[in-house]
Design goal:
six-stranded mixed sheet; 8 helices; 246 residues; single chain; globular; alpha/beta
């Protein structure tokens, strides 16, 4: 099996389609979508419908904070992000909103655990910025492999022999051995709104049988995505973020 892992899609149809096409080219035969299907960008309906179709075929899909906010479950969004949440809600029909509302906060399959933010408090949406927070999430998940997003920057943590999590910065296209005698937490990066200075979309492919994890950066037409964002009257700062990856 090759499992493609996409997080933080954020209504960016160009990025999502580019990553899915790339994943199929890499032989991916299953998909997991790790939350924040919507928010920030201009194609929420198209992205939700695309992921609904994959869910019907057995894809794993979990809820992100922007999904919860759009479904009316959160009120703490503020500023420009809150404005986009309100706009996004108006673009979606009842079935699409119900799909977001009914997404689970976590999923488990074998020795894999899937979540948007963290395993210890998945619906409080805390970020994993360091090894200590990674360890707390790993302990809560009680799984060999924990996959998530939310941070918008790709990173891999593994539990060392001294039971202290070690960070590892992945390089695109380089397979990383992830043997089962350790525990791993993978932040797969942002498909729809990277924030690490690289505008290319980010996702990962996990091969459980071979115990390999590969992160990928995928060029896509971010100029088109930014033009649609501006045409919709959404905040300029989000268009610039697509163009710069910052």
């Amino acid at each position: 099996m090759k499992l493609a892992l996409l997080a933080d899609l954020h209504s960016n149809l160009e990025a999502v389609e580019a990553c899915i096409e790339h994943a199929h080219g890499e032989g991916a035969d299953r998909f997991a979508f790790l939350g924040d299907l919507v928010g920030y960008n201009a194609d929420p309906a198209a992205v939700v419908d695309l992921i609904r179709a994959y869910a019907k075929e057995g894809a794993i899909v979990v809820k992100g904070n922007h999904d919860a906010a759009t479904a009316g479950e959160l009120s703490h969004m503020a500023g420009a992000a809150a404005d986009v949440v309100a706009w996004t809600r108006r673009q979606l029909n009842a079935d699409q909103l119900t799909f977001l509302a009914e997404l689970p906060p976590t999923a488990r399959e074998g020795d894999m655990f899937f979540v948007h933010a963290n395993a210890h408090s998945p619906e409080r949406w805390g970020y994993i910025h360091d090894g200590w927070r990674a360890a707390v999430s790993m302990d809560a998940a009680q799984a060999t492999y924990v996959f998530g997003g939310h941070v918008h920057t790709p990173m891999l943590y593994y539990m060392g022999a001294d039971q202290r999590p070690q960070p590892f910065e992945p390089a695109s296209g380089v397979p990383i051995p992830v043997p089962r005698h350790r525990r791993w937490l993978s932040i797969v990066g942002a498909c729809g709104q990277p924030r690490d200075g690289n505008p290319a979309a980010c996702y990962a492919v996990f091969e459980p049988d071979r115990e390999l994890l590969t992160y990928w950066r995928v060029p896509y037409d971010y100029d088109s995505a930014a033009r649609k964002l501006r045409a919709a009257g959404l905040p300029e700062e989000f268009a610039r973020r697509l163009e710069t990856g910052a």
